[in-house]
Design a protein that fits this description.
The structure holds 2 protein chains of 2 kinds. Chain A is an all-alpha fold. Chain A has helices spanning about 5-15, 25-35, 40-50, 60-100, 105-135, 135-150, 155-175. The termini of chain A are far apart. In chain A, about 55% of the residues are buried. Chain B is mainly α. Helices cover about 80% and strands about 0% of the residues of chain B. Chain B contains 10 helices and no strands. Chain B has helices spanning about 1-5, 10, 25-40, 45-55, 60-75, 80-120, 125-155, 160-170, 175-190, 195-204. In chain B, helix 3 runs antiparallel to helix 4 and helix 8 runs antiparallel to helix 9 (about 175-190). The longest helix of chain B is centred in the middle third of the chain and has 44 residues, at about 80-120. Chain B is flat and about 55 Å long. The two termini of chain B are about 30 Å apart. Classes of the chains: A mainly alpha, B mainly alpha. Chains A and B meet through helix 1, helix 2, helix 3, helix 4 and helix 5 of A and helix 3, helix 5, helix 6, helix 7 and helix 8 of B.
């Protein structure tokens, strides 16, 4: 079955939800790709998403992998265009308008009002992914240590995630 | 509002004005490509700042913070929204296009390859074991990033109420993200209505 139209719909819609960051769309990403369209399992989604956190650039590039799985190279390209195209046009237009609205009093209200909502959406996304990724004491400890290390020290998160891979290998892989 | 509408002819092209430092489309593409290829481990905003403000001097810190505020308010990833805004400031629409393609390209190619490899080898026990650790570490990273962002962008105690409402709406009431975004968003924007801001700036 041709999945291209569904890929376009899903990822253009998801992009509109990424207020504050990609994580804000995660709960809907899970529902649509796992439960509605069965493009991949929840575990696979978590794996791809967390590997994507190590990749350079915007942190949602794992959508390319979903596109590729579903419909090959065409799927990958379509997903990229659907996810980044509409919001790019929106940012271009609103960015220009926003500058002109410098004196508009509601501009500050919108920025201040949406700030906590976007943090809430990011936390809701964290919770959704944590429910799948934190499965016991070991994974909880890894997440907690990475969290504390990042707040305390200036570290490159990529190394911590690689560290997580090593701990995972010894904790779950070697019997 | 009426002021801006009255003189569109004067204001319609400020974004197209050539940048002071004479950034060409090629420069823009290459700088964003470099940022897109080197910003391992998230935190792409810090890379943007050092590349665009410190190294290239295309924008200053004040502009950077303003653009970041817009990027966070609008849908779309912060990194790509920043690319659009900076590209537009430097070279208009074409500049935006060069910037967003540049910043996305390296990660997209990498994740295309990673996705293919994972599809073939993802079932191996060694790989699932490592990815279990990677996923747990990623949760710690995402939470830390959110906390750091919150520290920077939240001003008042009642922000915590809006955060709580949003989380409860999505995770506990299982409402869809857009529904929660619109409902809590409208309440929060009205809460921060302009007269409150005025009162607060007067009282300070």
């Amino acid at each position: 079955m041709n999945q291209i139209p569904a890929l376009i719909r899903v990822f253009a819609y998801l992009a509109l939800l990424t207020v504050g960051g990609g994580m804000a769309a995660f709960p809907e990403l899970k529902v649509l790709t796992v439960e509605v369209h069965h493009w991949l399992t929840f575990t696979q989604l978590i794996h791809l998403y967390s590997m994507g956190q190590m990749a350079p650039g915007p942190n949602m590039m794992m959508i390319v992998s979903i596109g590729e799985w579903t419909a090959g190279i065409a799927g990958a390209i379509v997903v990229l265009l659907a996810f980044f195209g509409p919001t790019a046009v929106l940012a271009l237009l609103v960015g220009r308008l926003w500058k002109k609205l410098e004196k508009w009093p509601w501009r500050a209200s919108i920025e201040k009002g949406l700030a906590p909502v976007s943090i809430g959406l990011l936390l809701a996304g964290c919770y959704t992914i944590a429910k799948g990724a934190i499965t016991g004491a070991t994974t909880a400890a890894i997440a907690f240590l990475v969290f504390m290390a990042l707040l305390r020290f200036k570290l490159n998160p990529a190394f911590l995630i690689l560290g997580g891979a090593v701990v995972g290998l010894f904790a779950f892989g070697i019997k | 509002m009426s002021d801006a509408a009255a003189k569109p002819a004067l204001q319609s092209t400020p974004a197209l004005a050539p940048a002071a430092k004479g950034a060409s489309i090629r420069d823009i593409f290459l700088e964003f490509l470099l940022i897109g290829a080197t910003s391992f481990g998230g935190g792409v905003v810090a890379y943007l700042r050092s590349g665009l403000v410190a190294k290239r001097e295309w924008i200053d810190d004040k502009e950077f913070v303003e653009m970041l505020a817009i990027s966070q308010t609008l849908p779309g990833l912060n990194a790509t929204n920043m690319a659009i805004l900076v590209g537009d400031k430097l070279r208009g629409t074409l500049g935006s296009l060069a910037a967003i393609v540049g910043i996305c390209l390296p990660g997209a190619v990498l994740m295309y390859i990673v996705g293919m490899l994972y599809h073939v080898h993802g079932d191996r026990p060694v790989v699932t074991a490592m990815l279990k650790g990677v996923a747990a570490a990623a949760v710690g990273l995402i939470l830390a990033t959110t906390v750091q962002l919150g520290r920077k962008s939240l001003a008042h105690v009642y922000d915590l109420v809006f955060i709580a409402l949003t989380v409860l709406g999505v995770n506990w009431l299982h409402q869809s993200v857009p529904r929660v975004l619109i409902a809590v968003g409208i309440v929060a924007i009205l809460w921060y209505h302009p007269r409150r801001a005025e009162k607060e700036s007067v009282s300070q």
